[in-house]
Amino acid sequence: MATLRLDALSKTYPNGFTALHGVDLEIADGELIVVVGPSGCGKSTLLRMLAGLESISDGELAIDGRRVNDLEPAERDIAMVFQNYALYPHMSVADNMGYALKNRGVPKAERRRKVEETARLIGLEDLLDRRPKQLSGGQRQRVAMGRAIVREPKVFLFDEPLSNLDAKLRVQMRIEIRRLQKRLGVTSVYVTHDQVEAMTLADRLVVMNGGRIEQVGTPMHLYERPATRFVAGFIGSPAMNFLDARRSGDVLTLPCGTQLASPWPGEAGETRDTPVCLGIRPEHLAIVPEGQNGGGTLAVRVELVEPLGADTLVHARLDGQDDLVVARIDGIQPVAEGDSLILRPDTDRLHIFDPDSGQRLD
Ligand code: ATP
């Protein structure tokens, strides 16, 4: 069991490119941290630095309070699960799983016992004699997990482990990973660019952007109170709608003239009319039944309808504006392309951001 502390961790590659700018993070014992962010934000760099596969340019990495910056990967007691599984093709499942123990000089009988115990834990007991090429993608991923578990490391690192699997298997495996991680209680850091995977797996989410941490928190906290426009747009699917608006006291006015109650009234004594970026999640827009429009609504024309079964995504353009919004409505509501609709935003769930800095204002 282990805690991890990242203190102003930075990475500058030999070509002079700085991929991480002073990352601070404390990870509790047994916690499952998921790191998300767009391609190139530094997720893999961070994970590889934790593993010891990439040197640390500046700052400190500590495991259980002990500085490990200069320890070799093998000395860090960390196991990594990769997306390409990295299994030895000429070895059986049992030998793949027991390889690290063999290298460590663990006697054969004990090795066998540990491999069998782990195989039972993850449902591989009937496949121990197979070679990797005789396994399905999901089974190979399970062997890669088993190989990490059998080592009984202090920390698990997962680098997009499910990205080679089909959608259904991904869902199944992510439930299994969460269950196993909780059962074993091993501190884990999991990197993905799939935000649904991130939301469902994480105890806490770390959202990265451009080599920096934008926000850290529980999935629901990041969903309900994103600290920046970037986080607001990254967490939640489909993404939050953003509209230009002006705020005067506690009234927001949209370019179409619609007025909404602002979630933030501004500084005391402020009189100016200020531009803000208004965020409305698709699930917080509802269709107003005909004849019931009492203001505080958006008049739109439907451009595209995506039925998902339980829900329908309605892509619509604000009347007289260029802005497109997406609304997630109940799947049984009949909506067709070309329809004119009135949408009402849930004013208790609005978000406002500074249009320049992107910081949350309320
Ligand atoms: P992805 O989701 O696409 O894997 P990522 O968030 O994991 O992206 P990294 O692989 O950590 O991103 O890369 C972060 C940045 O560092 C990128 O701009 C990348 O081009 C750069 N980078 C990565 N490795 C090196 C290297 N060896 N030398 C120079 N720059 C590098």
Explain the overall architecture.
This protein is α+β, with helices and mostly antiparallel strands and 362 residues long. The protein has a 6-stranded mixed sheet with strand order 6-7-8-3-9-10, sandwiched between helices. The chain has a 5-stranded antiparallel sheet with strand order 13-12-11-14-20. The chain has a 5-stranded antiparallel sheet with strand order 15-19-16-17-18, with no helix packed on it. It has helices spanning 43-51, 93-103, 108-121, 137-150, 167-184, 195-201, 219-224, 229-234; strands at 4-12, 18-27, 32-36, 58-63, 66-67, 78-81, 155-159, 187-191, 204-209, 212-217, 241-248, 251-253, 259-261, 274-280, 285-287, 298-307, 311-318, 324-330, 340-345, 351-353. It is elongated. It folds into 2 domains: 4-234, Rossmann fold; 241-353, Nucleic acid-binding proteins (OB fold (Dihydrolipoamide Acetyltransferase, E2P)). The longest helix is centred in the middle third of the chain and has 18 residues, at 167-184. It is built from 8 helices and 20 strands. The two termini are 39 Å apart. It binds adenosine-5'-triphosphate. Adenosine-5'-triphosphate binds at residues 13, 15, 17, 19, 37, 39-45, 193. One of its GO terms (cellular component) is ATP-binding cassette (ABC) transporter complex, substrate-binding subunit-containing. One of its GO terms (biological process) is glycerol-3-phosphate transmembrane transport. This is sn-glycerol 3-phosphate transport system ATP-binding protein. It holds the Pfam family TOBE_2. One of its GO terms (molecular function) is ATP binding.
